[in-house]
Amino acid sequence: MKRLLASGLVLFALAAANAAGAAEQKVSFGTGGSGLLVTPEGKGPSPAMIVIQEWWGLDDWVKDQARALAKEGYVALAVDLYRGKVTSKQEEAHQFMMGLPPEQAMGDLKAAYALLSARPDVKKDRIGAIGWCMGGKYTLALATEEPRLAAAVPYYGAPPTDPAAIGRIAAPVLGNYGGEDKGPSPEQVKTFEAEMKKQGKSVDIKIYEGAPHAFANPNNPWGGYREAAAKDAWSRTTAFLAKNLKK
Q1: Number of domains in the chain
Q2: Cis upstream peptide for 147 (omega within 30°)
Q3: pTM of the model
Q4: Which of 5, 168, 170, 193 could form a disulfide with 205 if both were Cys (CB 3.0 to 4.6 A apart)?
Q5: Range of the domain at 165
Q6: CATH number at residue 43
Q7: CA dist., res. 54 & res. 59, Å (int)
Q8: Burial letters for 6-36: b for 16+ Cβ neighbours within 10 Å, e otherwise?
Q9: What are 165-204's pLDDT values in tens digits?
Q10: Mean per-residue pLDDT, 79-108
Q11: Is 8 among the domain residues?
């Protein structure tokens, strides 16, 4: 009897959380991957965002970005590209990133897109992607391979260099980069921006002078967090997503 009562209380708690919105759950993909799904308040359907981690893994900061997007009204799916591995050590993060097969990562991201597009609470033509560092690179890589992507927001992620790959990008792109970044450098970013404009693509790039790599993350171990730049980049991001996903 006590077990039944406890089960009932759990179900009631879950129902209350769903009614209040901002619910979280772990979801799995057919590719063997998984992620944290955060849903906004209301029944929807709502626009959605694929949230792509830095090289540290799906840590608390990335999860918090998914939660912040849910508060903005998006169904947010933070993909665990390392499949459970998380670190705060630079050497280990580098090993994780180098050991990640690109085809596996892209398979998981495409599966995340498929999962979102199949949900009744998601607007299928209003799915975007956002990522930081390694995740910024994969945001743009996904844009080259998923023509239905409705918005792409890379933060200091290496852009594609092949004009043919850039030509496959259909989503409008908003990029936030550091003027003191060495990888990618401002020159690389400007070359990408020029090619996007040459091909008639929608692109909005801002390079923050004095900002290094990973300037938006307050946990940046190199002391590179820049509060003013981070706040401005987030303001640009939310305005861009509202324009392209909530219209």
Answers
A1: 1
A2: no
A3: 0.91
A4: 193
A5: 22-245
A6: 3.40.50.1820
A7: 9
A8: eeeeeeeeeeeeeeeeebeeebebebebbbb
A9: 999 999 999 999 999 999 999 999 999 999 999 999 999 9
A10: 97
A11: no
